[in-house]
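Lecture 7 notes. Example A: sequence first, then its structure tokens.
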Amino acid sequence: MSWIKEIGPDEAEGELLHQYRALEQQRGKVANILKVHSLRPSSLQAHLALYMDLMFASGGLSRAQRELIAVVVSRVNQCNYCVAHHAEALSRYLRDPALLEAIALGEVPASLTPADQALAAYASKLTGAPSTVSPDDIETLRRHGYADPDILLINLIVAYFNFVNRIALGLGVSFDEAEVSGYRT
């Protein structure tokens, strides 16, 4: 649900229906952040392609690190929709509820590895004060073991979640507990 008209899975036809069916088969249901694209199925397709590449394709970051970035960026942007969804996803990798809650509240707990702390700091800085990012920030990531392909992926995931946060916030994409849970991994 959002502030604009949406075409739900029960009303969809053509390419949109095909995309919804694929999402339901793959993920179990269609997230509200994707339904908001229903008036532009080509944008939905492009959005999904980018999401799948950044969050699931091979690369030097673990799934947990990718979800950590999603939560950090979304908290800085105060996008509760994305914090809820990606904290839920992160909970599959972090089995410490207190650590997960601290991250979802915008903290960078000392119990994170130094590499993950550096990752979170970069994501937060690039989101909250992008013009202040400098070569020193990239060097910090390198010192923590991130190679340049990893740094590119980190940057792209941060940029992607800033994009998605603005879709959710700018169109009033809503959620409840039932909408956040129950997705297949």
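Example B, a different protein, same format:
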Amino acid sequence: MSEIFQLETLLDIAERFGYGAVFGGILLENAGIPLPGETLVLAAGFLAGNHKLAIGGVWLAAVTGAILGDSGGYWLGRWGGEVLWQRLGQLFRLPANDWAKAREQFAGNAERAVFLGRFVTLLRIFAGPLAGISGMPYPQFLLWNVLGAVLWGTVMTGIAFLAGQWLPLTDLVNVVLRFGILALVAVLTWAIAPPLWQRWINR
């Protein structure tokens, strides 16, 4: 019941405040604040499918909010993200050397992380700051940020628009959330399992 109520609340916010709510929600989420920005985009796209909002306006608000939000997250990571990185290492209880290797691994795959990270739960929030922490040049980050935002915005608003005509919004949100969680598990396994496995072998 609580999930449905929250979804109904987001639908109400999207209908009342329109494109501004979509822009603000996804901007803050991509800047590193854990808000349900993606769900708000889905809700707005769903409303567009029911002819209550314009799909072009939802898409533009989502894409521009994602680009600017991720850029803000990048500069936060660039200017003060070292402390965050150290805390993440402590959270996963990895030695400094192993965490440094994980950082190098992210830096080596930063383009893909920025481009595809929007489809991954939590990575959507942290990809920008992590790119800044890893020292990724901003012009390079901006290119993949824009390309990723356009792809993500097109997919999310497109499927939500179609759902607004044919499917219940709750079903769509559940599918998207499950996909994001599965993607997160895959990313964490790829990034964290090798150092942990190496530590276990060397015992």
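Note on Example B: The radius of gyration is 18 Å. Helices lie at 2-30, 37-49, 55-91, 96-108, 110-116, 123-133, 138-166, 169-201.
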